[in-house]
Amino acid sequence: MNSSPVTLDSHAFVAATSGAVGHRPLRVRLFGAPVVLFRTRDGGVAALEDRCAHRGVPLSAGETRGDSIICRYHGWGFGPDGSCVLMPGAPGNAPVAPVRISRLHTRERDGFVWVSAQANAPLPQRVESLDPKNCRFRWQTIWQAPVVDVQENFLDALHTHSVHPGLVRRPDQRQPMQASLTVEGDGFQVDYIGQPEQSGLLFRLFESRRSRERAYFSGCAAAQLEFVYAAGWTAWITLYCTPADTRSTHVFASLHLDGRRIPRWLVRLLVWPFIRRVAKQDQRIVELQERANSDFPGRLPVITPMDVVRPYVVAAWGGAIESLPRSRSALMYL
């Protein structure tokens, strides 16, 4: 079976929030390569390699003019498709030869700008399933850790007692729980069965008895936690992860609620401080993990039967998830 690592050639990833992209050039690093984003006159988003074809100066150091981005060095202009449309000093300022730089295809959904090398690269199925009107919160940051470690951290329940003690779960109140993973769609899902209530402060403050707890990994770009409540409402916390390079990851997040009327300002005022604390704790631990791993290159992690998620995340990024069993389950105490 042939497999190849995931890249922008085969998948779509978030490059920025929609609000971060305007007519002023925005430079982002995706999969190790600098990309410049800017809005055109019709409000669309263009994404080009951040390098003028003439002398290599970053286009993000220049300015936009109409539908073009202008290099600061000699004034060459490039359109949204990457073609050179302006060459000052040439007769009529027209390019004297066909010149083109690489571009990425863009689309916007749910307040995020998605990019891909192929125009028909699908968005993760879990993203397509979310209703934008249910979004209550968006957030972005960058973690100094590989994307696999970031996503495993988000989907892994075993760390919550020690990294978030009392906030997510209490270490002294572990109970049996069955984790069942199934490969399906563009990734996998994990059902956590046997713990309708959590012992931590977050559950007591903001939640109620759950009828379903499920984690999704979708299209490599999206990791999602889904909580369905007996009272008739549902919450989705989604992490969109894009490698900046092999050792750092752009992290974007959204909170969607269905069946529960909570205004955005109230989420930001009451819920966000707790979410931010959890996120900072997770960031700290995975960045410690990355620094330690860099000190011991070549050391492989120990994988136990309870580590349900990690083998599948690693395999997905290597394009080899089909080589693993279609399902597996494990008993753990959470």
Total helices: the number is 6
The domain count comes to 2
Give average pLDDT, whole number.
95
Residue share in β-strands: 35-45%
What is the helix content? 10-25%
Counting copies of identical and different chains, the oligomeric state is single chain
Stretches where pLDDT is under 50 for at least 5 consecutive residues are none
Explain what the structure shows.
The mean pLDDT is 95. The chain is built from six helices and 18 strands. It has two domains: 13-116, Rieske [2Fe-2S] iron-sulphur domain (Rieske Iron-sulfur Protein), CATH 2.102.10; 125-333, Naphthalene 1,2-dioxygenase Alpha Subunit, Chain A, domain 1 (Alpha-Beta Complex). An eight-stranded antiparallel beta sheet has the order 11-17-16-15-14-13-12-18. Strands 1-10-9-4-3-2 form a six-stranded antiparallel beta sheet, with no helix packed on it. The protein is of the alpha+beta class and 334 residues long. The chain has helices at residues 125-128, 147-155, 160-163, 201-206, 264-295, 310-317, and strands spanning 13-17, 26-30, 33-39, 45-49, 63-65, 68-70, 77-78, 84-86, 103-109, 112-116, 135-143, 176-184, 187-193, 210-218, 222-229, 234-245, 248-258, 327-333. The radius of gyration is 22 Å and the shape is elongated.
Structure at a glance:
This protein has 334 residues and is α+β, with helices and mostly antiparallel strands. The protein is 19% helix and 35% strand. It has helices at residues 125-128, 147-155, 160-163, 201-206, 264-295, 310-317, and strands at residues 13-17, 26-30, 33-39, 45-49, 63-65, 68-70, 77-78, 84-86, 103-109, 112-116, 135-143, 176-184, 187-193, 210-218, 222-229, 234-245, 248-258, 327-333.
